[in-house]
Specification:
The complex is a heterotrimer. Chain A is of the alpha/beta class. Chain A has helices at about 25-30, 40-45, 45-55, 70-75, 100-105, 110-120, 135-150, 180-190, 220-230, 230-235, 270-275, 310-315, 335-350, 355-370, 375-390, 400-410, 415-420, and strands at about 85-90, 125-130, 165-170, 215, 240, 245, 245-255, 260-265, 290, 300, 325-330. Chain C is α/β, with parallel strands linked by helices. The complex binds flavin mononucleotide, iron/sulfur cluster and FE2/S2 (inorganic) cluster (FES). Flavin mononucleotide binds near residues 91, 93 and 216 of chain A.
């Protein structure tokens, strides 16, 4: 590990070596500290110590829900007589999110190392990385890295001479956003359509093939090596309490330098956009900021100073989500933008829950009509009703995400909607 | 037990493929997990996944045909119909839309004289609007047969089309 | 147990129960579409939302387990609005065709629209277009009405085990689709229209002929197989329009055979008037003339009686009374599949309920095509299999089950002694033995390793043995069953509360029949042989059709060519061409009566539909026959008749007097202390013949049903089938070949299937191969006859 052991000095964790040329090869990765601490973990740590460290670290899942990782791991029952599985969620489908891709294509060994450590803590024999189908290049890079890792006895039987053995397999999705939802991911990995399962049972108890299963995001797992090497306390001291560590934010939209930026939690939106992303394309204050991927409610210019933490963003009325920040300046056509997102959710609904299956298509059709100047006042009521009663009444959170843009538009920009209604208003 | 499959000779995996599949199946707790990778193999080998191929796959993996159909029809990347030699998939979702993706699609449609979702008469190009490609920093993003092209301009697309039409590879 | 509050009422339910089930158990109404008590939970309709105190969002009650002290509310303005919206979502693509929809009147969507729906839908966009699909002779589809609850998909996966219905596409393009070649591959397909909560899957035979509100309903018992399911018969103007399962009865489903046989009730095959043969043709006469003619043929004659087991108990008792009064020396037969009439250590009937079988640690099926014979027991085993519990099987064919059988062994019928002897040795080695083992083992020269499957299963704490037709109809059945009985005793499965010995009977009322007829019973084969040998002057056949069914068609033909036939029946069958006199008896839908199923469960049917013609309940025909022939009539009404029947079967009395019918079971007969050792085998021919049973063809009622006959064509296999190796061993190939047996030589088209045991010749009773059912052995060769 080449990261500073002084938490005050830490600027980034997962991206520490992201710009190192050829970091995807084992030789270069090892030169930069990859796997250096693995043998210590496998030989000197025991699983419960690792889980305690993870709990102390305060790391919260980076996939969207922000659930404390150590706690999630501690739910996995031991000695059930069934195998435990570790699944890495690299589906990265949330519009605006593109961070896991960079970890995989530039520093695949970091993810592999994190998975071995997590697998060791959870007594996993078989682990899988579920990568969205479009990431062909990333799949190839991951597979090449895994091949090297096997050859170096970092994977497979008795890793580095320890008692621990683990297999790692990359599995390609095939174009279904909902497969990022952890239970849909499990279904998909079982060779079925990716339709989420209701909970309970939770995957930790009954997941992949009915066995205890942990699903973690790429970024979450890539953070594990630093935590184990430098300690849970070290990680907890980065960022701010209850929002520990660094987070990669994928910034897109109307900024001059869109991209992934890993910053300590608590950095403000404004700092991120102005200091890292080169500011807005037009104007000085954004019109809309979507802070956690397209499924999260919108923030407005007035929230520009909000610190990027789970808690502060929630206080502001949204979520940190996957850390995908979509920025829109005054040139944005919000009705058209919302219409495009309703199309996305209508296309991606798995179809099982009534309100999501029927509601997403309904929203799209109505708002399209509104955008085309054929909407009525009743349509506006319908949009509100149809979106409200989808959210929180379905098996998974996709429907909630589908409702979010529509409800945000109606709430914050009713005049934009009214302006479209034209003569039918 | 699989459905009583009857399929033509074209939709047959080679022996190498079959042994590859046998290895693949071992990586999972159940053979059905191998279905998606095997569907990709079929798409690679046959260009698209015909009903015959689906029956053959059901038999190879010991699944009911319905299980295969359910998966083929659920995922957008499995194609039951042939597409053009070059599949041009333009992301028009949030980040790309805010950075000119709609205009790019309009330009491509005009240049190729087809609508989105269609294939050119020479069978070379298919245009498809797709959902967020997970590369929004490079908006607008176009995938050309699984290869990402980022910050694509109308001129870039024109160049690619001309190159292919002149017999080059994309 | 968990206690919780539902609408402020404290209730207790088993831990792990869902909120929805807790509500149902306590009479609280929660609307739902996708939930079904017999299927896995899908939780997709989102109609069953309830509020739980302290929870931020409404919860789907079907998939939320109860928690201690939980406070659930099922009615709030918020929930009303949610339900109204769910209905609106569901109806946006639903056609407004209730007036022409068969489901109208029993449609959940319609009911809930009235209860929870908004007055007017606000969807003004185009409705989606959906295609229908072909599912065979019993199920129609109208997929625009589908609400995607996936009940049918779960049914196909979990109950039928066929997986031929699935979910294609996603989002609002999602469709429910079937992939079938000619028809659903399930013998339970008729349940699909029942479980579809809307009018998307419809009953084809009753399609467009009736509306639910026009019907009168009465409960009865299906007599189409020994399972004797409770059925509800729906009729309009005394015409049966539909047969359905009965809610809360032991089986939630009924099979297609029991459901669709009703078209036979009004078919041309019904005998609706008394008839006598004149100048070679049957002509209708009045009852008196018919009886006079019967009397002429029977009076003072040596008579043999054969009847079918599916009459009501009262009917059966009346046949016995007729015999005792008029023909006290007559032999009686009722089973067309039993060759060996020596007493069995355990006689036909189940010692376990089907629920107990499903629950036991091990289940072993010996020589039975369970899916065809007892489709509902099969579905229980399938469910058991899904739960990961083992089902093993030994027999002459890997009969299709739609489930993964845990252990499967193919053997020839002649291997049974070797299988049992091997199992005996295996359990002995593990310290389990019974008096008689050694002598039994010593009587068998060979060993067959399939016995290991049996022995392994027997080592479990509980083991249900399902002994099927391949053993029951074996020449040496008494010995085989004795061997199995010894094994079960040795392993502790023959005790009072842990008795796993179940011999699958041919038809209904078995337990009762062995009590009523034990002393006068002979094999049907023997009866025909006596007639052919000139030892009988006439045959009375009551409902039985030994040419169409059973193992003695050739013998029956020979007998009927020799002596006159008095046929008493509801449906004519293949023997009618021999009948000198036909006396019509009422069908099972048309009578009051008592029925006992293979488990010993007693059901009393009441409130029947009216007879179509002049037919009368069987007991009345019998009493009248006694009267006409000058006997003393022993009973003048059903009550008196029942009282007489209860003399042989006392437990029946209680139920007729109102005792809890589910608490009383009629036990099957046991013959303790028998020792029957296997006979030395003396085979003249090298192949064993096994007669195949088809639920779509067996039984006179079924053959009279057009709907089932149609289905039978779809599900048919070849007439004569063997394993490919059997042909190879004889140097033959598929096609016309010569079959030799003690009946002589004939040419048959021989087809091959991988799933039959080498060394076995399977014959289907239909068509040309029917007569081969009479033989147990045959050989094949090439060349002409
Ligand atoms: C519709 C939907 C899509 C999701 N997509 C992703 C995804 O692409 N990647 C991801 O890591 N998590 C995604 N999630 C969140 C996962 O369900 C899950 O919370 C996460 O993988 C857990 O990992 P973590 O604890 O490491 O964050 C999605 C959730 C929903 C409801
Ligand atoms: S909310 Fe939508 S995507 Fe999620 S399970 Fe339900 S139908 Fe599928
Ligand atoms: S009954 Fe609960 S969601 Fe359908």
């Amino acid at each position: 590990m080449t990261i500073s052991s002084d938490p005050k000095q830490v600027k980034q964790i997962c991206f520490d070596n992201i710009n190192v040329p050829d970091m995807n090869t084992l030789a270069v990765a090892q030169k930069h500290g990859a796997y250096a601490f693995l043998s210590t973990v496998l030989k000197e740590f025991n699983p419960s110590k690792i889980i305690d460290e993870m709990k102390t670290s305060g790391l919260r899942g980076r996939g969207g829900a922000g659930f404390p990782t150590g706690l999630k791991w501690s739910f996995v029952p031991r000695n059930t007589g069934k195998p435990t599985y570790l699944l890495c969620n690299a589906d990265e489908g949330e519009p605006g999110t593109f961070k896991d891709r960079d970890i995989m294509r530039f520093d695949p060994h970091l993810l592999i190392e994190g998975m071995i450590m997590a697998g060791f803590a959870l007594d996993v024999k078989d682990a899988y990385i579920y990568v969205r189908g479009e990431f062909v290049h990333e799949v190839n890079v991951m597979n090449a890295a895994i091949k090297e890792a096997y050859a170096a006895n970092l994977l497979g039987e008795n890793i580095l001479g320890s008692d621990y053995s683990m297999n790692l397999t990359v599995h390609r999705g095939a174009g279904a956003y909902v497969c990022g939802e952890e239970t849909a991911l499990i279904e998909s990995l079982e060779g079925k359509p990716g339709r989420p399962r209701f909970k309970p049972p939770f995957p930790a108890i009954e997941g992949f093939y009915g066995c205890p299963t942990v699903v973690n995001n790429v970024e979450t797992l890539a953070t594990v090596p630093a935590i184990l090497e430098l300690g849970g306390d070290w990680h907890a001291a980065i960022g701010i309490p209850n929002n520990a560590g660094c987070k990669i934010f994928s910034v897109s939209g109307h900024v001059n330098k869109p991209g992934n930026y890993e910053v300590p939690m608590g950095t403000s939106l404004k700092t991120l956009i102005e200091d890292y992303c080169g500011g807005l394309q037009h104007g000085t204050v954004p019109k809309v900021i979507i802070p956690g991927g397209s499924s999260t409610p919108w923030l407005l210019g007035e929230h520009y100073d909000t610190p990027l933490t789970y808690d502060d963003l929630m206080k502001a009325g949204s979520f940190l989500g996957s850390g995908a920040i979509i920025v829109m300046d005054e040139t944005a056509d919000l009705v058209a933008f919302t219409r495009r997102l309703t199309h996305f959710y209508a296309h991606e609904s798995c179809g099982q829950c009534t309100p999501c299956r029927e509601g997403t298509g309904w929203l799209e059709r109505v708002i399209t009509r509104v955008e085309n100047g054929q909407g009525t006042q009743e349509d506006v009521t319908v949009l509100g009703d149809a979106a409200t009663h989808m959210a929180g009444r379905t098996i998974c959170a996709l429907a909630e995400g589908a409702a979010a843009p529509v409800l945000s538009l109606l709430k914050h920009f009713p005049e934009d909607v009214q302006a479209c209604l034209g003569e039918n208003a | 037990m699989s459905a009583d499959a009857v399929y033509s000779q074209e939709a047959r995996f080679s022996d190498e493929r079959l042994s590859e599949i046998a290895e693949l199946v071992k990586r999972y707790p159940g053979a059905q997990s191998a279905l998606m990778p095997v569907l990709y193999m079929a798409q690679e080998d046959f260009g698209y996944i015909s009903m015959d191929a689906q029956k053959m796959i059901a038999e190879v993996l010991g699944l009911r045909l319905m299980k295969v159909r359910e998966v083929v029809t659920f995922y957008t990347m499995f194609k039951e119909q042939p597409t053009g030699k070059y599949l041009l998939e333009v992301c028009t979702n949030a980040g790309c839309m805010l950075n000119g993706a709609n205009e790019l699609v309009a330009h491509m449609c005009e240049t190729l004289g087809i609508k989105q979702g269609e294939t050119t008469a020479d069978g070379l190009f298919t245009i498809a609007e797709v959902e967020c490609a997970g590369a929004c920093a490079g908006a607008p993003v176009v995938q050309v047969n699984n290869t990402y092209h980022e910050k694509v301009t109308a001129a870039d697309m024109d160049a690619l089309i001309t190159k292919v039409r002149d017999g080059g590879a994309a | 147990m968990t206690s919780l509050f539902i609408n402020d009422q404290e209730v207790e339910v088993a831990a792990g129960t869902s909120i929805l089930e807790a509500c149902r158990e306590n009479g609280v109404d929660v609307p739902y579409f996708c939930y079904h008590p017999e299927l896995s939970v899908a939780a997709n309709c989102r109609m069953c939302l309830v509020e739980v105190e302290g929870w931020p969002k409404p919860a789907a009650s079907c998939c939320t387990p109860v928690g201690e002290g939980m406070k659930v509310v099922t009615q709030t303005p918020g929930l009303e609005k949610d339900r109204e919206m769910m209905m609106e979502y569901l109806l946006i693509h639903h056609p407004l065709d209730c007036p022409v929809c068969d489901q109208g009147g029993s449609c959940k969507l319609q009911d809930y629209t009235v209860e929870h729906g908004a007055s007017k839908g606000r969807y003004s966009e185009p409705k989606r277009a959906v295609v229908n699909y072909e599912l065979g002779p019993f199920v129609n589809t109208c997929m625009t009405r589908c609400i995607h609850c996936t009940r049918c998909v779960r049914f196909a996966d979990e109950v039928a085990g066929t997986g031929d219905i699935g979910v294609l596409n996603r989002s609002d393009h999602m469709t429910i689709a079937g992939i079938v070649e000619e028809a659903l591959e399930s013998e339970l397909s008729g349940n699909l229209p029942d479980i579809c909560p809307v009018g998307a899957l419809l009953d084809k035979p009753s399609h467009d002929v009736s509306r639910p509100w026009e019907m009168t309903r009465h409960q009865s018992t299906c007599t189409q197989c020994p399972n004797g399911c409770d059925i509800q018969i729906e009729s309009r103007d005394d015409e049966v329009m539909r047969i359905q399962p009965v809610e809360n009865s032991p089986e939630p489903w009924i099979c297609d055979r029991g459901r669709y046989v009703y078209d036979a009730f009004r078919s041309e095959h019904r005998i609706l008037a008394p008839k006598v043969r004149e100048n070679g043709a049957l002509v209708s006469v009045d009852w008196d003339d018919a009886f006079t003619k019967a009397s002429e043929l029977l009076k003072g004659k040596r008579v043999g009686i054969l009847f079918s087991p599916d009459w009501s108990v009262e009917g059966q008792a009346s046949i016995r009374l007729m015999r005792d009064t008029l023909f006290p020396d007559a032999h009686v037969a009722y089973d067309l599949h039993r060759r060996d009439m020596r007493p069995f250590a355990f006689e036909e009937g189940f010692s376990m309920t089907t629920a107990q079988i499903a629950d036991s640690d091990q289940v072993v099926v010996l020589g039975s095509d369970l899916r065809q014979r007892l489709p509902l027991l099969m579905q229980r085993l399938r469910k058991r299999g899904l739960a990961g519990k083992p089902v093993s099987r030994i027999g002459a064919m890997n009969y299709r089950t739609n489930m993964d059988v845990t252990n499967d062994a193919l053997i020839r019928p002649r291997d049974w002694p070797a299988v049992i002897a091997f199992a005996m040795e295996q359990v002995s080695a593990l310290g389990k033995t019974a008096a008689g083992f050694d002598a039994w083992i010593a009587a068998v020269a060979d060993r067959h390793e399939a016995g290991k499957i049996l022995a392994d299963a027997l080592m479990a704490d509980s083991c249900a043995l399902l002994v099927g037709e391949e053993i029951r109809s074996h020449d040496d059945a008494a010995a085989l069953i004795n061997g199995l009985d010894l094994l079960m005793r040795a392993c502790g499965h023959a005790e009072k509360d842990n008795d796993g010995r179940n011999l699958i009977p041919e038809g209904m009322n078995t337990q009762v029949l062995s009590s009523i007829y034990g002393d006068v019973r002979v094999s049907a084969g023997e009866l025909f042989a006596s007639a052919s040998a000139g030892e009988l002057d006439a045959l009375i056949l009551v409902g039985s059709d030994p040419i169409g069914d059973g193992l003695f068609p050739a013998a029956a033909k020979a007998a009927l060519e020799k002596v006159p036939l008095i046929q008493v029946a509801a449906v004519s069958g293949q023997i009618s061409k021999y009948a000198a006199v036909q006396l019509p008896a009422a069908a099972y839908a048309e009578i009051e009566g008592t029925f006992v199923n293979m488990e010993g469960r007693i059901r009393v049917a009441t409130n029947p539909i009216k007879s179509l013609g002049q037919e009368r309940p069987l007991w009345k025909v019998m009493m009248r026959m006694i009267q006409v022939m000058g006997g003393e009539v022993p009973a003048v009404n059903l009550t008196e008749l029942r009282a007489l029947a209860c003399q042989s079967v006392p437990v029946l009395g209680g139920v007729c007097d109102g005792a809890d019918r589910d608490a009383v079971m009629v036990a099957p007969a046991r013959n303790k202390g028998l020792v029957t050792y296997p006979n030395a085998q003396k085979s003249k021919f090298n192949l064993d013949v096994v007669s195949r049973y088809s639920m779509y063809r067996e039984g006179a009622w079924v053959r009279a049903s057009e709907a089932l006959t149609e289905a039978g064509k779809i599900h048919a296999l070849g007439d004569v089938i063997v394993h490919p190796d059997t042909l190879i061993a004889h140097g033959l190939s598929e096609g016309e070949n010569k079959v030799s047996s003690f009946l002589g030589e004939s040419l048959y088209h021989i087809a091959v299937r991988e799933d039959v045991s080498p060394g076995v010749l399977f014959v289907s009773k239909r068509g040309v191969a029917g007569d081969l059912s009479d033989v147990t052995e045959a050989s094949i060769s090439g060349g002409a006859v």
